[in-house]
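Section 4.2 – Deliverable D4.2 (structural model, holo form)

The reporting period included a commitment to supply a predicted holo structure for the target in complex with 6-phosphogluconic acid. Inputs used:
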Amino acid sequence: MSSDPIVAADEDELARVAAAWIAEEVRRAAARAGRCALALSGGSTPRPAYERLATEPGMPWSAVEIYFGDERAVPPTDPASNYRMAREALVDRVGLPAERVHRMEADDPDVEAAAARYAALLPDRLDVLVLGMGPDGHTASLFPRSPALGETRRKVVPARSPVPPVDRLTITPPVIASARRLAVITAGAAKAPLLAQVLRGPWRPEELPAQLAREGTWLVDRAAAAALAAR
Ligand code: 6PG
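Output (structure tokens):
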């Protein structure tokens, strides 16, 4: 059974708690290994946490390499780009050089080659992996009943989303399983029943891919945690 999530009163406090969690884990990894491979989630929920993280004092940003858990097949300047969101919310604010921010080139027409290139870029293990949870229980771009869920060898594969932007690149279950520290940031009443199923329900990651992160640290707001007490 997964450990209890860390519950914040509201989305503002969730951003503060999530930023502090990421900051602490980045500092630890940098202290331990002199570097930190940090992989960020896309979507809308983590953005305020990234903005807060950008204001954290004394961060070892010179030791940090940024990766992504997934990306949409859009240019890096597109509003739907996870890379763009992370640049605006964090990367450009802390002055991380471009060569240490690794975008998934999901808009490459040869998406298989782009997946292989990114897999080659990834370290053996991510030090800190941040994920989210979609309304259908997906995480990264691992959607329910997706063939990518059965992937045991490749680290990055093309994926198709049931909602636009359809074409994606995503990390695979082995990358999630091997991450040294893992957090899932999710919020809102609409996700409450789903969160209860993911954390307390029977093990069925084919239907609820976010369960692949069940043993991680879940950072949620009170609205999303509302159905947990009942379980
Ligand atoms: C993406 C994400 C995805 C996201 C969830 C939750 O590219 O869409 O990486 O896995 O985390 O869809 O998104 P929200 O935070 O917007 O609810």
